[in-house]
Amino acid sequence: AQTVTQSQPEMSVQEAETVTLSCTYDTSESDYYLFWYKQPPSRQMILVIRQEAYKQQNATENRFSVNFQKAAKSFSLKISDSQLGDAAMYFCAYESGGSNYKLTFGKGTLLTVNP
Amino acid sequence: DTAVSQTPKYLVTQMGNDKSIKCEQNLGHDTMYWYKQDSKKFLKIMFSYNNKELIINETVPNRFSPKSPDKAHLNLHINSLELGDSAVYFCASSVRSSGANVLTFGAGSRLTVL
Question: What confidence tier does A100 reach under pLDDT thresholds 50, 70, 90?
């Protein structure tokens, strides 16, 4: 079974600074997808960014980018120019390729943004 | 218009009662899900339906029974509620994009069992 590990239960960053959240996963598959979801205090789960394992290029979405290291099974999220609205719980998630419909989540990292 | 809507958002009930949570999506997605988030914020899949057919049942007690009357609706009924059922339940729907299942979540339903 696949597992997703987020080793940082909590992180903090100063507004306008950059922060990197770590995620590692364990799989024997070569075809899979990785995601970062954000859960602010409102409780709503919001997709931040996703990466297809077959793509070598790291995904970026505005201030959010990932560092995908397939051999190391690492998928970190970098948030640049942090804003107060970035404060949230961040979850890394894994989905097997093929017709799999199951997302496996990590335990989350609580990000605090200090003004 | 809310894309994935769940009702109720909050539910407080006594042990032993039966309760339901309803979910509707207006995105035209074929696949819908129920996820459970426990008190430590851990998210785990419970069920998944594709075109009204159950495709994932993740070792959930049979006190939990999902029902999908059509592909836009997925309801969750829980019998004989226990203290450990207290959690936030998220409904979601998904569409495949470049092979990945991209989920859109509802706002969650917080269930408290006393």
Answer: confident
